[in-house]
Queue: 2 jobs
Job 1
Amino acid sequence: MTTDPAGPRVLVTGFEPFEQDPVNPSWEVARALHGERIAGALVHAVQLPCVFGAAIEQLHQALEQVRPTLVIGLGLAGGRIDFTPERVAINMDDARIPDHAARQPVDTPVIAGAPAAYFSTLPIKAVVRNLRAQGIPASVSNTAGTFVCNHVFFALMHWLAQGRGEPGVRGGFIHVPALPEQAARRPGMASMALATQVAALRETIRTCLTVAQDLKETAGQLH
Ligand code: PCA
């Protein structure tokens, strides 16, 4: 991994495929923007393993190597119909399926002694508005689940909350829908084309780098 001393950097993480899928759109989308400059910042894409603990170690390594001013974690949420910036990371692992190291933690904290939850520091409402303005389906999500994605999201926010990042660094997590080829194997599953997902990430990064104050606009859900 190389760092660019000439300008700000964006770290985007994606996951390796999991649950017998040959592909994970979160990584395909992240790597599509590796090396691109958006609003003056250089994008670095890093793949994380779908393994509790190891994913956090690799995230920490990437954070120390890249020293980003913006961090966006991506993960697949098969079944979701749109691009979903997550609002909150919770300090809880509760795995429905084993990870790639056959670990299946149930009701254990991501980080013992850490707070119950952290909010994303990305301007999630502005991201949703700007994506919709481009015709890309998007909505705020109020749960990142309790599997490896939430695990990494929580560890990221804890690291940032400890002031270990660059001054003013922002971070958060976005779940993305399946790709059309994945949905084709599962009748009824929604999907979004890779090109649309890449355009969504590009607009998300641009928004996060240029919008200082998030919008106050409802994205509330009754349940
Ligand atoms: N999605 C899973 C883990 C890896 C991924 O892409 C999740 O939502 O936790």
Job 2
Amino acid sequence: MRESHGVTRQQPLTAARRRAEQLRDVIRQHDYRYYVVDRPTISDTAYDRLFEELARLEAAYPELITPDSPTQRVAGAPLPAFPAIEHLAPMLSLESVTDADDVRRFDERIHASVRGRTVRYVLEPKFDGLSLEVVYRDGVLLRASTRGDGERGEGVTENVKTIRSVPLRLRGNSVPRLLAVRGEAIMRLDDFRALNERLERDGQPPFANPRNAAAGSIRQLDPRITAQRRLDVFFYDILHMERGPRLADDMRLLQALPAWGLHASPNTRVCSSVDKVVQYHREMERRRDSLEYEIDGIVLKVNDLDLRARLQMTARHPRWALAFKFAPREQETTIEDIVVQVGRSGVLTPVAVLRPVQIGGVTVTRATLHNRDEIARKDLRVGDVVRVIRAGDVIPEIVEHVPARRAHRHRPYIMPARCPECHTSIVQERPFDHCPNGLACPAQLKRTIHHFGSRDALDIRGLGPETVDALVSEGLVRSVADLFTLTHDDLMQVERFADVSATNLLKAIDRARQTPLWRFLHALGIPSVGTRTARDLAEHFGTLDRIQSADEAELMAVPGIGPTVARDVAAFFRRAVNRRVIESCRRRGVRMSRTSVTRRGPLAGKTVVFTGGLESMTREDAEERARARGALTARSVSAETDLVVAGTDPGSKYAKACALGVRVIDEGQFQRLIGAHG
Ligand code: IVH
């Protein structure tokens, strides 16, 4: 038995190699079932166990690590820029039409050139994402690039390697020597919504639609960020193949893709008449809203690959394929009014009230105008006829006004000088307007209370927006602290409550009295403090008192906290009203505990200490990443420590860890441990 940084080598190398190979195989099988065919056969926990065993084995026997091991989905260090990559074959674009008559003409053209032969078409959804080329050499992922100008694109290999549905190694035994496949990177709608919520919580601008989110995530110089964004790829074409199986038609090609472990569309079909094409288009358009991702049309491609070769290309498009797009989810309507909503933090958001209009089967009556600068940029006025777009379930957006339909009486919009809810003079902080009245403004109060009980805050079930509205309007709740003195009788006065719902809400409120400090901090709704910052603060300071009395310099000493957040936090706690509310919560039994445990992730609930210098990231960064995977990070080693990550020249902490028998790993092992769980 040998020791390698405290990790034991308990078996002969050959046995370890065998086990590692076995584990990789099994893990790849499960990845394939989960990400490609969508039929997982084991639980997440069982999967994690296998994964951890492999990671441990590789940590003890680094010589066994292979570049295509499932543990190697490591998000590498940031790139200075994307290298230019020439595609193995040009990535063409498609001619696109929206009219069935154009599809019929396309079909006639093809029939004219094949003289009497039957033509079959492969039909596929047209994914609304970012087109990629992914190259495999001897079955191992070699590189990935964006479409760029069609000839050369940007090398985004490191980023694409973090996408779980992209295999690092192909399956099966007819793997070509060289294979370039084309696919579309997309972000699913629920991941898109979650990402935008997170961005907004962290005070960053959200993405306008899932396509931009996917493209923005792939074109990220820091692969660690891509790794946090959940992306998926649908493969649909072979751009180039050397020494692979002979494929006679596209359908066979499309079957080859999943056989190699590449995720392809489950909605592909073959047909041999243009009527069937139109029917498929109609059917997919109907299903569009129930899919988990965005499609913007269908693609029809001649199935026979020889025939394709004969049909060749026009200047830019292949003659054998056509994009048949859905009608744009865009309509014209009129801005009937512009109203202003007051958000939790007091930000005023202008919203256009629209003459109701059907867009893609949904009645749209409102569209956000974001802020005064947006209104000015688009020059939107009450009375204007505007073009409104609705993408997926994304909030409707006004694209532009139709200048020809503007009348003289339409006056430029002027943002109110006072808060529409409490009439306090507003404060401008370009591009936003603010109501500075804080919790004394009823709109802010309602939103604050709702946020206070939301899932990532105190998680009080049953405290939805309508309930909050009723509680505030009835005068039962004037601050978040009032939640803790609500009685059954109080609730029974409110129309929406019955005996059971009142009891349940009171129970939920009572449970929330015991809370991890970070949840309470997040619940307070301090501007620019999202869950992550709340955790950092909680962990760094340990108690609310210490956070409350910290000045800006002390706050900025917390890794990851910059001047803006420090200023916002300090300003929040300086306000007497905020301090009073916190004090009341305490008097009413709220107790905050220092730590909390993230239940998921490879480091869930483990206390990790870093010592020595790290090569690929800063200490703060490493701690942050460990926390993001469920770890608690500490500065000193004790019997409570589960794991020590030792960099170069580790000092006394390393010695102490060894003395206490705490597991020690090096930086590479740490990277694999965390990168693997992206
Ligand atoms: S086939 C020769 N199939 O739509 C062109 N394209 O110009 C091969 N797209 O940028 C493309 N879904 O990235 C094909 N199922 C699908 C597709 C698809 C989306 C994209 C493609 C291209 C654009 C059309």
